[in-house]
Amino acid sequence: MLSITNPANGSVIAELPEDTHESVHAKFLAARRAQPAWAAAPLATRLATIRRFRDGIVAHLERLAAVLTSEVGKPIRQSRNELNGLLGRIDFFLAETERTLAPRAVFDEGGMIETIEQVPLGVVANISAWNYPYFVGANVFVPALAAGNAVLYKPSEYATLTGLEIGNLLHASGVPQDVFAVLVGGGRVGIELLKEPVDGVFFTGSYPTGKRIAEAVAGRLTKVQLELGGKDPTYVCEDVDVAAAAASLADGAMYNTGQSCCSVERIYVHERIHDAFVEAFVQEVQGFKVGEPADETTYIGPLTRSQQVKVLQMQVADAVAKGARLLAGGHTLDRPGGHWFAPTVLVDVNHDMAVMREESFGPIIGIQKVGSDDEAVRLMNDTEYGLTAGVYTRDPARARRLLAQVNAGSVYWNCCDRVSPRLPWSGLKHSGLGLTLSTEGIATFTRPKAWHLRSA
Ligand code: NAD
């Protein structure tokens, strides 16, 4: 049985039977049988089910937000934000799928016609994370279903109730039961799923698990996409409005209790404004309301996973032992049964410290002083990750010059912690392989089939 607990207080919300080797296999076989008819249905029919799914999200938004908050500990207003943000992503897919997947005639001469058709991959596995289960799940299953695939969706064991809600809504919207199946369980069920001969593996989660997944399926030459973690840097130049930059970056570092793949995880500040920036940043952080996730005024909630408390404690102890100064937080909060960590700001940090090198995934930030743009770029690139990076400056040419040198899938000027459905979402190095979102994130759930047609 899988126990679903409330991370704010440890209370058990639900006990659910987990999928087994046999049930995973049965769901795979059923999906394999059901997929051709789903793919053969007109695209308009599939898009209509996605539109009804969107209507279902709107109709049940309050309940869905409450479920997400109860099992993940996401502050309730941020749960609503995620669901509202999801609507925009669905709208993008609804608007762009037909054009993106339309067959293209690329040659027509002397009785020879050449066309490219985008055909679905078949049955795909979608193994997902808990931190934004609607966003990261829908980035895969919405375009995958629209393109005619069947999807075996394994939500994170920390967002299982949300995963089941998604399944119920899709089925109520007209997606056949066997075309979208939810698998309940943790890593063991993920391993079972990968034993099945699926036609694509779409994973969102940590680098260590992503690497394991890539290794598990490598010999089968199956398409694999990995959306992994980050250690996302931002550089604050000396010409900024210090208070505005501090407010924006404090939010980028601490929103969702710092548990976003694109959370700001490292800040480099030009020495001329370093002290003023740090003062404004700490003031912002101290203004964040920590509290019960169901409370409308809460900004910082519990950590979703108990294991992360140790990671944050280790990063603080390591940094302080190596000379960092702790200006806020640095400790757990005494709230019985839950996993709570105070919003934490460290200065006088450097790259010998884990807090500047390893993904923190919590409400903690290291702020490092730099003397020049070149030093900032060198430090931003001194990482095994490459998801996002940002620069705050009033000077657009300087921003372009700096961001062109930074190795990251997404770069930000005067903004951070931002994802757009119109732009590809991808990471370099340990941040991943492949992409979701944008029109390329629709086409990625198909393969191009080449037609050579001679009429006589
Ligand atoms: P995780 O790697 O612990 O788990 C992710 C999923 O993999 C879960 O569903 C889990 O049950 C499953 N799993 C675990 N072991 C497995 C195995 N051996 N085989 C198959 N499946 C297995 O990650 P998490 O804690 O759920 O998510 C947090 C991580 O995800 C962070 O590193 C974060 O940065 C990253 N993330 C990345 C993006 C992105 O778009 N790049 C988005 C959200 C989260």
Question: What is the compact description of this entry?
Answer:
With 456 residues, this protein is of the alpha/beta class.
What secondary-structure arrangement, pairings included, does this model have?
Elements: E1 2-5, E2 12-16, H1 21-40, H2 43-59, H3 61-72, H4 76-101, E3 104-109, E4 112-120, E5 123-127, H5 133-146, E6 150-154, H6 160-172, E7 180-182, H7 187-195, E8 200-204, H8 207-217, E9 223-227, E10 232-236, H9 242-254, E11 264-270, H10 274-287, H11 307-321, E12 325-328, E13 344-347, E14 364-370, H12 373-380, E15 388-392, H13 396-404, E16 410-413, E17 425-426, E18 432-433, E19 435-436, H14 440-443, E20 446-454
Parallel strand pairs: 5-6, 5-8, 6-7, 8-9, 10-11, 10-15, 11-14, 13-14, 15-16
Antiparallel strand pairs: 1-2, 3-4, 4-20, 9-18, 12-13, 17-19
The structure holds nicotinamide-adenine-dinucleotide (NAD).
What report would you give on this structure?
By secondary structure, this protein is α/β, with parallel strands linked by helices. The chain is built from 14 helices and 20 strands. The strands form five sheets. A seven-stranded mixed beta sheet has the order 12-13-14-11-10-15-16, sandwiched between helices. Helix 4 (76-101) packs parallel to helix 5 and helix 9 (242-254) crosses helix 10 (274-287). The chain is globular and about 75 Å long. The model has no long low-confidence stretch (mean pLDDT 98). Nicotinamide-adenine-dinucleotide is lined by residues 127-132, 136, 154, 156-157, 186-187, 190-191, 194, 204-206, 209, 212-213, 227-230, 261, 359, 361, 387, 425, 427, 432.
